[in-house]
Specification:
alpha+beta; three-stranded antiparallel beta sheet; 3 helices
Length: 257
């Protein structure tokens, strides 16, 4: 009996040591799949662009107004899923670590899409780039081209996740002044992300973002200060260049930004 108890105790100790490692390995595997999904979707967007004279896709997001809408509903030909359907593998639409997705009421494990996109707008309300009366003025601070770039059929060279501002900013490039960067594709977050209470799909933790340059400290302040935070994946693009970040949520309480 004593020997049996000793063996059980040893097994318990080993399990206590091994379980966190197994959980981390499983989480890491999910993160690899999610990154590959984003790369696959981006490849689909680039392929679409090559077929349509270097334009980004024009698509609308039915889930902006109805989380329970089917993003692949054939009655919505301009939805994200339908526009990119033949360019992206079906399995690439769902992150294995997702905590939210669409249709929302389908429930965990039955979502058809678990990513969000910077679409032109909700179904029936999106405005194609060329139809925007402010487009084509040549001014980099033109509201049609500078205030976050959406998938609205514009030339792909204009695609950019930065928000350019006319006021002085902490960073500057050839397009203008900027402080923040927004994803063009990102994991869907559950909870209440717009008031700083998101539920993250990944167990990975980050303590800083390296893509914000001089604005990083401002970002850290807006995302709840220093220290490690749970994270999610987002794809940033600047023209045809794209990068994937495991990042923390930015709480947008910064007036004017």
């Amino acid at each position: 009996m004593i020997e049996l108890l000793v063996v059980v105790s040893i097994i318990s100790v080993l399990l206590t040591i091994l379980l966190p490692s197994l959980r981390d390995a499983r989480s890491q595997a999910k993160r690899v799949v999610c990154k590959n999904n984003l790369r696959s979707i981006w490849t689909g967007i680039r392929t679409y662009s090559l077929e349509y004279n270097d334009r980004t896709p024009f698509f609308e997001d039915p889930n902006l107004t109805d989380p329970n809408a089917d993003p692949f509903d054939p009655e919505m030909p301009t939805s994200v899923g339908n526009v990119l359907f033949r360019y992206v593998k079906e399995k690439s639409w769902v992150c294995p670590a997702a905590v939210a997705g669409f249709p929302a009421n389908a429930g965990r494990g039955k979502w058809k899409m678990t990513y969000t996109f910077s679409a032109a707008g909700p179904i029936g309300k999106g405005i194609p780039y060329d139809a925007n009366p402010a487009a084509g003025t040549g001014d980099v601070l033109d509201p049609a081209v500078s205030n976050y770039m959406h998938f609205d059929g514009r030339p792909i060279r204009l695609l950019d996740g930065r928000r350019y501002v006319s006021v002085p900013a902490l960073n500057h490039n050839a397009k203008g002044n900027w402080n923040v960067k927004r994803a063009v594709i990102a994991d869907a977050l559950a909870g209440q992300p717009m008031i700083g209470k998101p539920k993250y799909p990944h167990f990975g933790y980050v303590d800083k973002r390296l893509d914000l340059k001089a604005a990083r400290k401002q970002f850290e302040h807006n995302s709840g200060g220093g220290g490690k935070k749970p994270a999610y994946y987002e794809l940033h693009a600047d023209g045809t260049r794209a990068e994937i970040y495991l990042t923390r949520f930015w709480v947008p309480h910064w007036p004017g930004y």
